[in-house]
Design goal:
Elements (H helix, E strand, L loop, with lengths): L7 H23 L15 H22 L4 H18 L1
Helix pairs in contact: 2-3
Amino acid sequence: MNWMAWTAPTGLFFAVIASALLFLILLELKRPTAVAKGWLPMATTRGDRFFVSLLGAAFIHLFWLSLTDWPVLYASGLAMLWLVAVMAKG
């Protein structure tokens, strides 16, 4: 993999996403999800809410990097709060 500029944080990021997807697959096999209506403007499944969480996290990080000089770790914390909120009540 010398042709790619992989760093430890990049590898960790993709490993966490892959682990979360694997967890969601296993959870779906054990306890199938039902379509639910939360505060999002559409009925969603567990996978839909996870996808919305990932999109939201990307936008949180983009806005954070463009609007502040603060460390990006704060944006990651905010993205985790977004993930919890969407997965719990979305």
